[in-house]
Amino acid sequence: MSTSENILVNRVANSGLITINLEDYYPQETFLTFDVKDFLFKELILKEKDFRAALKEHNWSQYENNVLLLYCSADAIIPVWAYMLVSAYASPYASVIYMGKEASYVEQHYYKVIAEMDFSIYEGQRIVVKGCSTKPVPPSAYMAITKGLQAHAQSIMYGEPCSTVPIFKRPRKLVK
């Protein structure tokens, strides 16, 4: 056997595929929660005077440069102004204040990031949207990236470059 016959060729590296890893766009900040329930009388009733006093005494600096997820886990009627008041206290500290739970925030984060992407850089390219991730990338992010890429990419695949599932392929134009 000659030396040239023993050379391994990395066909994936030479394939011209561009891999997009949605995990790269996952929020970098830490998620911290603020449950209004903990500031209610008997975890059910909002007493304005007590609520304001508790918020004033709360250590807001703990939210410094983090995403604050604001919600109420109790089945209580919370006036809108209460959420506004929490936001006013947290604003100098938290990088983001979001009304809802982590999964909902992550989904909205991806929607915003993907909406701001310049898909024209993928014009005529063969794209693999990486499938396996260690972070919880929502399925809606995969749907949004597909919609954005479809107007530009030659083809879109899902998975890993060595093992993909075809999602979209632009038909070839007939030359006359």
List the main descriptive attributes of the protein structure presented here:
176 residues; alpha/beta; 2 domains; 3-stranded parallel β-sheet; 4 helices
Helix and strand arrangement:
Elements: E1 17-20, E2 31-35, H1 48-57, E3 67-71, H2 80-90, E4 96-99, H3 102-115, E5 126-130, H4 139-150, E6 155-160, E7 163-169
Parallel strand pairs: 1-5, 2-3, 3-4, 5-6
Antiparallel strand pairs: 6-7
Structure report:
The strands form two sheets. A four-stranded mixed β-sheet has the order 1-5-6-7, covered by helices on one side. The chain has a three-stranded parallel β-sheet with strand order 2-3-4, with helices on one face. The protein has helices at residues 48-57, 80-90, 102-115, 139-150, and strands at 17-20, 31-35, 67-71, 96-99, 126-130, 155-160, 163-169. It is an alpha/beta fold and 176 residues long. The two termini are 47 Å apart. The chain is 27% helix and 20% strand.
Give a summary of the structure in a few sentences.
The chain is an alpha/beta fold and 176 residues long. The chain folds into 2 domains: 3-27 and 105-169, no CATH class; 31-94, no CATH class. The chain has 4 helices and 7 strands, in the order ββαβαβαβαββ.
